[in-house]
Each structure stands twice: as structure tokens, then as C-alpha cells.
Amino acid sequence: MPRGSAYPGPADALARYRAVVDASENGEVKGAKNPYTSRNGHMFSFLDAQGTMALRLSPEMEAEFRMSYDSGPVVQYGRTMRGYSSVPSENTIPYTMTPPLTGCRLYPGTPASRTPR
């Protein structure tokens, strides 16, 4: 029973993460203890044990996202995860994730059924 069923972090963070993924087209939370999403075997988001959501973005989107949302790099086990940006908790609900093969894209306020440009 995945969907973060054994997640040791904050329950409210898991609820927010599930809400974002559930609002996404074909989104599914995988992993029991370490919730994540993937497409074609490539992880594009996860929720760490402290309750921080991380997104894998293209280099162009990563720079824009970090400037727009006062975000930063994701550090796990003392190493910076290349291509991942942290999502400030107050910014998790209004977004819909639409993962193409190369990563995750964020479209503020767009419904999950709408096709991105």
C-alpha cells in the first residue's frame, strides 16, 4: 500500500503532496516510506522526511522557478541533487504538475486537464 503509507514526516506535508499529485493528469504517488512520482522510470518529484517537496526541472525552468518562488537547491545526505529545486510549503497547493519525459513543469492555476503550451 504505497502513497506514503509509512511516511515518517509531517502528515500535513504528505496531505499537500498528495493533493498536488492527485490534481495532476495521470499523477500517482509511489513509495511507502519515501513518497515520489515518476514517469517512464524517471523520478520527477519527491517529498523528503522534513516535509519539503522537491521537483526536477529543466535548467531553464529551474532558474526561473528559483527566482520566482525564492526556492533553492535540494540537499540529501549532504549532496546537492542536480536538477531538483525545493518547493516552499506555501506554494504547493496552487500548482498542477504535468510531467513530460524530461522533467516536471509547473503551471500556476491551470486545470490538470488543460494541455500546456
What attributes does this structure have?
single chain; 117 residues; alpha+beta; five-stranded antiparallel beta sheet; two-stranded antiparallel ribbon; 2 helices; 7 strands; disordered C terminus
Structural class label: alpha+beta
- Tell me, rounded to a whole number, the average pLDDT: 77
Low-confidence runs: 98-117
What is the N-to-C order of secondary-structure elements (H for helix, E for strand)?
HEEEHEEEE
Task: Count the domains.
Answer: 1
Strand percent estimate: 25-35%
Shape: globular
Distance between the termini: 35 Å
Topology, number of strands = 7
Q: What would you report as the Rg, rounded to the nearest angstrom?
A: 13 Å
How many individual helices? 2
Detailed description of the structure:
There is one protein chain. By secondary structure, this protein is an alpha+beta fold. It contains two helices and seven strands. The chain has helices at 11-22, 59-68, and strands at 36-39, 42-47, 53-56, 73-76, 79-87, 95-98, 105-108. The longest helix is centred in the N-terminal third of the chain and has 12 residues, at 11-22. The termini are far apart. The model is unreliable at 98-117 (pLDDT under 50).
Describe the SSE topology.
Blueprint (H helix, E strand, L loop, with lengths): L10 H12 L13 E4 L2 E6 L5 E4 L2 H10 L4 E4 L2 E9 L7 E4 L6 E4 L9
Antiparallel strand pairs: 1-2, 2-3, 3-5, 4-5, 6-7
